Structures are given as structure tokens and as C-alpha cells.
Amino acid sequence: MLTVNIVTVGKLKEQYLRDASAEYEKRLKAFCKMNITELQESRLPDNPSDAVIKKALDDEAFAMEGFFAKKAFNIAMCIEGRQLSSEELSQKIESISLNGYGTMNIFIGSSFGLSEKVKERCDMRLSMSKMTFPHQLARVMLLEQVYRAFQISSGGKYHK
After folding, report:
1. Of 20, 36, 86, 149, which sits with the fewest C-beta atoms within 10 Å of its C-beta?
2. pLDDT given at position 51
3. How many domains does the chain have?
């Protein structure tokens, strides 16, 4: 069974988002071993300089270091990443499993994104859309899409 680790910066603050996340985590247990790790978000001043933002992203990258492993397929969630349909994501996850990876790590950065250091270490860059979404909602949307992908692969009726 594939292990899916979502490594994210920051916590879900709103109860309705925590409830939605918990629901998809519960549903995903039928298809994979699901783990979500929430890393400490860097505290930044209002209107931070580029140097302050870079330092924060580098600190967050350092905290993510322990999640990279040889037998893991690593995905960076970033705006410049590739956009996939739900069916294509399903095929990608199947491919990851068939190619001998036991773990799929998905990295979600802060509202300022991910450090280039993390992106460079990842096997794939993935974008959810050209549109902008609230950072916390994006995590719930990602969980829903991973669940949908497993449903597609299993021939479930969830995806129409």
C-alpha cells in the first residue's frame, strides 16, 4: 500500500477546513497510508523584504529535509508546476506505485510558496490551477483530488 505524506507549512485555522481535511483523510485510509505533517510557519513582518522571504523559505526548506528519501517520489506544489486532469493525476499515482515507489511526498509551502531548494529536489512540480486559492483551502482541494485519483484507479463511482 502506497504511503502518501503531505508535508505542509502552517496549520488549518478554520474548523470547517479541519473537518473537510479529516473527512478526506478518513476516506483515503481505504487506499493508502495517509500522513499529514504541519510544519511551523515562519513569522514575517507586514511587507517583508525579498531577503526576509527568502530566509523564511530556506528555514522551511530545512524543516522539510527529513522527508526526502531514496524510495519516495517527491512532488512540489507550486504555481509554475504542471497542471493535470483528475484522470491524469490518477494515472500518475498508479505510475508512481508501479515504478517501485512505496512513498509519495507532496510538499506545500507557505503563502510565499516553496524554496527553490525543495523544488529542485522534487521529482515533479504540480500546480492545481492558474487561479489563486486561499492557502488553507488548497490543502483540502489537494486531498480531495488525491482521493478522487484513487477512486478513479479503483473504478469507484465517486468520479463522474
Report:
1. 86
2. 92
3. 1
